[in-house]
Automatic annotation (TrEMBL):
Organism for this UniProt entry: Ameiurus melas
InterPro entries associated with the record: NAD(P)-bd_dom_sf, SDR_fam
Upper taxonomic lineage: Eukaryota, Metazoa, Chordata, Craniata, Vertebrata
Ranges in coiled-coil conformation: none
Positions of transmembrane segments: 6-23
Protein name: Dehydrogenase/reductase (SDR family) member 13a, duplicate 3
Gene Ontology molecular function, alphabetical: oxidoreductase activity
This protein's UniProt keywords: Membrane, Oxidoreductase, Transmembrane, Transmembrane helix
Family: Belongs to the short-chain dehydrogenases/reductases (SDR) family.
Length: 318
């Protein structure tokens, strides 16, 4: 019995050490307060987005939860107001799977909000299917919707002084690619709807996030707006909630022991949004609150520029 107890004790000790030194992740160390500042966080009704919005609200920001599901978003608004003591937290409807909804959100925001200091493009999904406009769901939501949203709000960001755009990507961008022929013929970056296509579609969309950030930084050079992309870590969120239970079961089991909490997963987003002195690193990619390298394809300025031009046409901006 003593041997078994010793083994259990050693295992628990090892896990605690692993958790606090590796699994818990890095922390955003910025003490910046945001009184008088306005932030928009997409997909803020749950997971990393909600944790990000809560932290910004605690710092005194006016926080707008840009979400598709009204019921869940209003519940999140209630939670964040209660936990932060900040009443300036509100919901605005945004469905990134509809370019019309993106335009409607931007129109409402620009009519009602005089400033925008932080745009956190956080929402993301891993789901097959098509958007309202016929694009592949992950390409349309994870990239194209955020692309249009950012461009429609860019003048307000510029008018608000030192402002930042943060695009939540993933380390899986390293497995991604952009095939413009497939994009032209299928309005998507994959050709099928299988589980493998779904996984690769997610990787491709996350590469688009990094490429978008890179080209955006080039176009913003000399302005008061900077932008960053990031890998939040392996986080226990609801991103795979639309996948069948038997496919999610291994993730659910592992997530309880080894994945970051949403609050832990929000730290690199907060670092990119708040850390002083990051302006010279506009366009760069971060992991664990630290500057990190991207794949060779993600450093291709020609690819980034072409993706921008194609995205403009798909959004009806050119």
């Amino acid at each position: 019995m003593s041997v078994v107890l010793a083994i259990i004790t050693a295992a628990i000790t090892a896990y605690v050490v692993l958790y606090y030194n590796v699994l818990r992740g890095s922390r955003c160390r910025s003490t910046v307060m945001l009184k008088g500042k306005t932030a928009v966080v997409t997909g803020a009704n749950t997971g990393i987005g909600k944790a990000t919005a809560l932290d910004l609200a605690r710092r005194g920001a006016r926080v707008i939860l840009a979400c598709r599901n009204k019921e869940k978003a209003e519940a999140a608004v209630y939670d964040i107001r209660r936990e932060s003591g900040n009443a300036a937290v509100l919901f605005m409807h945004l469905d990134l799977a509809s370019l019309k909804s993106v335009r409607d959100f931007a129109e409402t925001f620009l009519k009602t909000e005089p400033r925008l200091d932080l745009l956190i493009n956080n929402a993301g999904l891993m789901l097959a299917g098509r958007t309202e406009d016929g694009f592949g769901m992950m390409f349309g939501v994870n990239h194209l919707g955020h692309f249009l949203l950012t461009l429609l709000l860019l003048d307000r960001l510029k008018a608000s002084g030192q402002s930042r755009i943060v695009n939540v990507s993933s380390r899986l961008h390293q497995k991604g690619s952009v095939d413009f022929n497939t994009l032209s013929t299928h309005k998507d970056l994959v050709t099928g709807q299988s589980l493998w296509h779904c996984f690769m579609g997610y990787c491709h969309s996350k590469l688009c996030n990094v490429l978008f950030t890179r080209e955006l930084a080039n176009r913003l050079e000399g302005s008061s707006v900077t932008c960053y992309s990031l890998h939040p870590g392996v986080v226990a969120t609801e991103i795979g909630r639309n996948i069948s239970l038997w496919m999610r079961l291994p993730q659910l089991l592992c997530s309880k022991l080894f994945f970051l909490t949403p609050e832990g997963g929000a730290q690199t987003t907060l670092h990119c949004a708040l850390q002083e002195g990051l302006e010279p690193l506009s366009g760069r990619y971060f992991t664990s609150c630290t500057l990190d390298e991207v794949s060779d394809m993600a450093r291709d300025d020609g690819l980034a520029k072409k993706l921008w031009e194609v995205s403009e046409r798909m959004c009806g901006l050119s």
